[in-house]
UniProtKB/TrEMBL annotation:
Identification of the protein by name: NUDIX domain-containing protein
Cofactor(s), names only, from the UniProt record: Mg(2+); Mn(2+)
Record keywords: Hydrolase, Magnesium, Manganese, Metal-binding
Residue ranges of the region described as Disordered: 1-21
């Protein structure tokens, strides 16, 4: 699925006179861990064949599937009503956003924010490799996977962080909610996804340095999230930061000759 980091100023920029296309709802997760060097965040470089944000370095995430709103999913943590208040949307969409965040994180990194009950988190997820592939192939929904595996979605492991909307003028637009989550004990993130050419853990400062040096490409929302994380001492501080209700940010595009400038 396309990455939904709310990018701006890409090669997808449409002519300014075209009416804006609707923004698709999406979710992305800043997956975090503590190291002796400080906080690290899991990042992926998207393959150049992608139609949106090709070659960009991003967090795991993607568009909402209509099946993500399934109310039958066993759920632990803040209610859909509470998430709706935090993200300024209706309850159905709020539920879908949380479920999409869990599903996309699992599909793209192998990290599963779920457990056998509200007080449990799964350890090694290798036993769910077949289900992961089936989810990627849309053979079944997140609700079907969790029910078959006897798992409860752990929405309490997620924190609301930001909401960016792709600027009007882009041909592909996303209304993306950003979440933060700690890497569960016993799990690890991998790069086993066809959507990324490489994946790995980086400190926010190192990731931004790569962007400044031209070794990677970071869209404005990704840069903003990394800047937020860079001032936090550890994952506990990130998860304790209350960012709700979450304001919606939509940059604008200014055309200057052949250049497209992003303004916040």
């Amino acid at each position: 699925m396309p990455d939904p980091t709310g990018g701006a100023g890409s090669a997808d920029a449409a002519a300014p006179q075209e009416p804006p296309v609707p923004a698709r709802d999406a979710a992305t997760v800043m997956l975090l861990r503590d190291t002796p060097s400080g906080i690290e965040v899991f990042l992926q470089r998207r393959v150049t064949a992608m139609k949106f944000a090709a070659g960009m370095t991003v967090f795991p995430g993607g568009g909402v599937d209509e099946r993500d709103a399934d109310a039958s999913i066993a759920w632990a943590g803040p209610s859909a009503a509470r998430w709706a208040q935090w993200f300024g949307c209706d309850e159905r969409l709020a539920r879908a956003l949380v479920c999409a965040a869990v599903r996309e994180t699992f599909e793209e990194s192998g990290v599963l924010l779920a457990g056998h009950g509200p007080d449990n988190i799964v350890g090694d997820t290798a036993g769910y490799a077949g289900a992961r592939a089936a989810l990627v192939g849309r053979e079944f929904s997140l609700a079907e996977f969790l029910a078959d595996a006897g798992l409860t979605l752990r929405g309490d492991l997620l924190r609301p962080w930001a909401n960016w909307v792709t600027p009007e003028g882009e041909k592909r637009r996303y209304d993306t909610r950003f979440f933060a989550a700690a890497l569960p004990a016993g799990q690890d993130a991998d790069g086993e996804t066809t959507e990324a050419s490489e994946s790995g853990w980086r400190t926010p400062a190192d990731a931004m340095a790569d962007g400044e040096a031209g070794r990677s490409m970071l869209m404005p929302p990704t840069w903003a999230m990394l800047s937020d994380l860079a001032v936090c001492r550890d994952v506990t501080e990130v998860l304790a930061t209350h960012r709700a209700p979450v304001p919606k940010v939509m940059p604008t595009l200014r055309f200057d000759g052949e250049s497209v400038l992003v303004e916040l």
